[in-house]
Amino acid sequence: xxxxxxxxxxxxxxxxxxxxxxxxxxxxxxxxxxxxxxxxxxxxxxxxxxxxxxxxxxxxxxxxxxxxxxxxxxxxxxxxxxxxxxxxxxxxxxxxxxxxxxxxxxxxxxxxxxx
Length: 115
Description:
By secondary structure, the chain is mainly beta. It is built from no helices and ten strands. It has strands at residues 3-7, 10-13, 18-25, 34-39, 46-51, 59-60, 68-73, 78-83, 92-98, 109-114.
């Protein structure tokens, strides 16, 4: 059974950094294109960044381009999101899933950026 577990969130100040990790177990991780998503209170869940199964061709939401970097380690079944120059509007619960989203959703990890 596939399980998705996100970690690495927390409280950061404006301009700070956080690195999120997502471990996928029970499936063939290297076959999945992956993405990071976020959901702020009262808003829909949006894709923030995505990466192909081989780790090339990353893409980003316009508002995070140049600040966030998605990467993956297929040997560790893990996808990462390095977040730099954080802004209060980045505050949300962050999730990862395959693209398209066919895996069970994890619990997410809360990112809070203080101004």
